Amino acid sequence: MQDQQPFSHPIRRAALPQRKPLRFDLAPEAAERTAIAAALGLLDLPHVRLTGEIRPAGRNDFALSARLSADVVQACIVTLDPVAARIDEPVERRYLADWHEPEAEETEMPEDDSIEPLGDVIDLGAVLTEALALALPPYPRAPGAAFSGHVAASDGAEPLTDERMRPFAGLADLLGKAGEGGKTR
Length: 185
What we know:
By secondary structure, the chain is α+β, with helices and mostly antiparallel strands.
């Protein structure tokens, strides 16, 4: 999401207080919500808000603690009907002044995924959009929507079903028949 942010609200590092928290309450306007919804593939985003604070953490670092609340409308994965969901999630980020990208090709991912490098700005719009993307229900389903499968084949061909796609599905039957016919006592 670093290419083009649908919503940006930068806070300059130089503007962050060194001794007390900077409180924020970010609620994008309708046009901004529309841009966020389009970027995330949502049908609608009637409400989204990020409230919290950025506070000093040590000599040069900062910590962000916030709450994301949103009402989202996604397409059902089965019927494509609109599915509404309510999101209410904590958001935590730590911005470290001396953090550097790992240079080796094969490095382990850090256990704490809330750590980010501290740049010249902290973009609260990017934090809001990223947190919302991570909190979205991955498989929204309308009430009563069920996937019964789809069976199709060309004329004259036997359709492939889930049962026929399992290569060892009839192995037990074949072994049983071979065992019965091969017994001589």
